[in-house]
Design a protein that fits this description.
The strands form 4 sheets. This protein has a 4-stranded antiparallel beta sheet, with helices on both faces. It has a 3-stranded mixed beta sheet with strand order 10-3-11. Strands 5-6 form a two-stranded antiparallel ribbon. By secondary structure, the chain is an alpha+beta fold. The chain folds into 2 domains: 160 residues, no CATH class; 153 residues, no CATH class.
């Protein structure tokens, strides 16, 4: 008797999601066994590096009902984030500028998506209460818990997991965030199987500066620039430093090279507008920030994740990779006097690079 109400609710969710700034919604069940097996294999190969949180609660990742008891359905949503008029290629080509991954230029997406997801849950709750359906439960997530986001999104029909291990959508590319609502309500699920459209294309693998995509659909995080500049809290392997170029927080090369991103939509979400000109700022200016300036200018930003020492470490490498400039040498030597051992080792490497003919 309630089935028609659940179908009605499932039909209303996309409308509400659109009003809240999401571009697509899908609903899936909790069966993720194949993806759980893939995760185990990836962990067994040590491709997660020092991200120990990936191995913790592994079962909860592939078994949503263990993370949130009673869960029978997951509502998966995506939100575009590519800045309007983005000049990523120009920044990468300018060795004196710092490249920040496009997702981190604006407000921290975790807070924004979580807030919008909670508003969507409130609308769902009101609908169910108005129709005298009790016992509704829901929890929201966005890259913040042991959740296989891409696997759930693929099952929900939002796209397919590409060779670069990101979710791809034939009408929107991959420049989007994902969020989930775990619920105990038996909503009708997506029945259309998404076709993998990567074909024989290897653009993402060919462009990767460090060859981190070791096989199609297989990423060794330890070689990934995003991992090294964000997740790694210690020294970045010297063998990778030259390939990092001027990427000081994350890397988007495999997305930028993907042919499907010709269909990516620019975001009109004001919270994703770049802050403090971080989309195009000179390395020396960023390197001159004090810790207080760093904390002030990255307030409410995902960049905070790397910490001030990680920030200086990453910029040191970029300065070492920049064109030879006496002002760079002076800045590096000056900063060398006031930093800790970890950052100092990267500054010394950069000085050596700048001193080389």
């Amino acid at each position: 008797m309630k089935d028609h109400l659940f179908r009605e609710l499932a039909n209303l969710i996309p409308t509400w999601a659109d009003e809240l700034g999401f571009q697509q919604v899908g609903i899936t069940d909790t069966e993720l066994t194949p993806h759980g097996q893939n995760l185990k294999q990836w962990l067994d190969q040590g491709f997660h590096g020092e991200m120990e949180y990936m191995s913790r609660n592994r079962n909860k990742r592939s078994k949503p009902a263990e993370l949130v008891p009673g869960t029978t359905r997951i509502v998966s949503l995506r939100m575009d984030y590519l800045p309007v008029g983005d000049k990523a290629k120009e920044v990468l080509a300018a060795k004196n500028l710092g490249y920040v991954s496009r997702y981190a230029l604006g407000r921290d997406y975790h807070k924004l998506l979580r807030s919008r997801l909670k508003k969507l849950v409130s609308k769902m709750t009101l609908f169910l209460l108005d129709n005298d359906i009790q016992g509704f439960a829901a929890r929201v997530f966005t890259d913040s818990a042991p959740v296989l986001e891409k696997a759930l999104a693929e099952k929900a029909g939002l796209g397919w997991i590409g060779k670069n291990t990101l979710l791809l959508n034939r009408k929107a590319g991959s420049w989007f965030f994902l969020g989930e609502i775990y619920t105990n309500i038996p909503l009708p699920t997506n029945r259309d199987k998404v076709v993998n459209r990567c074909g024989s294309c290897n653009a993402c693998r060919d462009i990767c500066p460090t060859n981190a995509i070791v096989a199609p659909y297989e990423l060794d995080s330890k070689l990934c620039i995003s991992y090294q500049t964000i997740e790694n809290r210690g020294e970045i392997p010297e063998a990778l430093r030259s390939q990092i170029g001027n990427r000081i927080f994350g890397c988007d090369d495999c997305q930028a090279a993907c042919p499907w991103n010709r269909y990516a939509k620019e975001s009109d979400e004001t919270d994703f507008i770049p802050r403090h000109r971080l989309e195009k700022t000179e390395l020396l200016q960023l390197f001159s920030w004090s810790e207080d300036e760093f904390l002030s200018k990255t307030e409410g930003s995902a960049i905070r994740r790397t910490g001030y020492e990680g920030w200086l470490r990453n910029i040191s490498i970029a300065l070492g990779n920049a064109d030879h400039d006496a002002s760079i040498q002076i800045a590096l030597e000056s900063k060398l006097k006031v930093v800790g051992d970890m950052v100092a080792s990267h500054i010394r490497w950069a000085i050596k690079q700048q001193s080389s003919p």
